[in-house]
Write a structure and sequence with these properties.
This protein has eight helices and seven strands, in the order E-H-H-H-H-E-H-E-E-H-E-H-E-H-E. It has 210 residues and is an alpha/beta fold. The protein folds into two domains: 4-14 and 70-96 and 106-209, Rossmann fold, CATH 3.40.50; 17-66, no CATH class. Strands 3-2-1-4-5 form a five-stranded parallel beta sheet, sandwiched between helices. A two-stranded antiparallel ribbon has the order 6-7. The chain is globular, with a radius of gyration of 17 Å. It starts with a strand and ends with a strand. The chain binds magnesium ion. The site of magnesium ion has 6 residues, from loops.
Amino acid sequence: MQKVIVIDTDGVLRNFHSKLQKVYRKYYPDFKNPLTITSYCLRDWFPIGDKIYDFIYKEHPKEIFLNALPYPGAQEFVKTLQQKYKVVIATSQPQESARKYTQLWYEKFKFDADDFIYIDEKWKIGGWILIEDSPHQMELAAEHKSFSNIIPFLQVWNRQWFLEKRQSLTTLKNPKEYKTFLSILTPQDNYRIILNYLGLGKPLKITLKE
Ligand SMILES: [Mg+2]
């Protein structure tokens, strides 16, 4: 039986965060992108705090969820994993508006997978590997032991969490290339590192951002 890899959507395949900041700036032109983001929680990124969730889910779901771009190489990353594994693309969109436009987004950008699952808590899917950027989802999956391995998709918003937890969560994988996360990895670097870790990669060429 093929092993199952579950891949999260926002922050892993879809550049939701950059689109959200662009749309936000359209309505709040004085907004400057936060220079240092250490929190996964969106209310910490924007001056309107908790109202950011209405801004996303009630006021601008189409503009954000349908028009955000995939990270470069995202579809190829999924396709390469599919050569060897059963791939499930998952998203934990809590709101119907986001689910609808996310489904259209997968079609628009031609994402192919063995299954697409919309679920609040991804640990419930279970499988061999979970690829995820949310500290909360990774902690739940580790707690419930429903995945044999958790590969964090490293982003600025989970960097601090990763540095703190990488020794303590036994299912959390720490490929040796992640030491470069002391600088910042691009999504493409994450794709390359993960494929290499699974023996599917071409030789690694890491691009570090300042
Ligand atoms: Mg995510």
